[in-house]
Amino acid sequence: MQKRDLWIFRIVTGLFSVMMVGGASMYFMQNDQVREAFTNLGYPTFIIYPLAVAKLLGLVAIWTNKSKMLKEWAYAGFIFDFLLAISSHLNVNDGEQWGAIMALILVSVSYFYHRKLYPTYVD
Fold first, then answer.
1. Which domain holds residue 89?
2. Percent of the chain, pLDDT > 70?
């Protein structure tokens, strides 16, 4: 059972990571397109690069065991980010909320299996 849970955690977290690295790289490589999307959503464009870096650092925190608290905050940050992204897309009614919904599902499943594998992980 534990081996199956570990595989589920790794696959789901891997898929989530691919999504986040792809999104962060888009923030850097297709900045004009991302800038337009942020403007349409009503967000300031100066947060694009810090958000991309935060997503990459969040992935590092999730995949490493350097800090238990940092890993918990990374999961929380991703969940807040996706909830806000979903509500922003729904608010402007652009139909682009599905990527954020998928990311929210993946990060939630990743967290669930992380907690299942390491129930006493956080003091």
1. 2-117
2. 97
